[in-house]
UniProtKB/TrEMBL annotation:
This is Transmembrane protein 238 like. The chain crosses the membrane at residues 50-75, 81-103. The keyword Nucleotidyltransferase does not apply. It holds the Pfam family TMEM238. InterPro entries: TMEM238 (IPR029365). Residues 1-29 are annotated as: Disordered. Residues 17-27 have a biased composition (Low complexity). Keywords: Membrane, Transmembrane, Transmembrane helix. The keyword Membrane applies. The lineage of its organism: Eukaryota, Metazoa, Chordata, Craniata, Vertebrata.
């Protein structure tokens, strides 16, 4: 049907390279810098100065989550002990996450007003 083709042509957006006659479509400029993650190159990311706190927080998260999920889904007589213990361990791991984050904050000497 000729009318159906016309409707499709009218509804379709113009091609991205359509501009002035004779003008060729240009690709967007390439980024000047490699991929960045929080101001650092992807390949140079590290755990920071306090890897011990990071490891302890991660370990406590895993142990607390395992205990919590076992207490919820396993049919044991002491399920309440596992749920309470798992949630307390997860709460305690927050202290290590806060310590790791706080000790990795870098402030320039100019902003310290020493």
């Amino acid at each position: 049907m000729p009318g159906g083709e016309r409707r499709q042509r009218l509804a379709a957006p113009p091609p991205a390279h359509a501009g002035q006659p004779g003008e060729q479509g240009r690709a967007p400029p390439a980024p000047a810098f490699p991929a960045m993650l929080l101001g650092k190159l992807w390949g140079t990311c590290s755990l920071g100065r306090c890897a011990l706190f990071f490891g302890l927080a991660l370990l406590l998260d895993v142990v607390g989550l395992v205990l919590l999920l076992v207490g919820i889904f396993a049919s044991l007589d002491f399920w309440d002990f596992l749920i309470y213990t798992g949630s307390l361990i997860l709460a305690f791991s927050l202290l290590f996450w806060i310590a790791w984050y706080t000790l990795n904050i870098e402030v320039p000497l100019e902003k310290l007003d020493l």
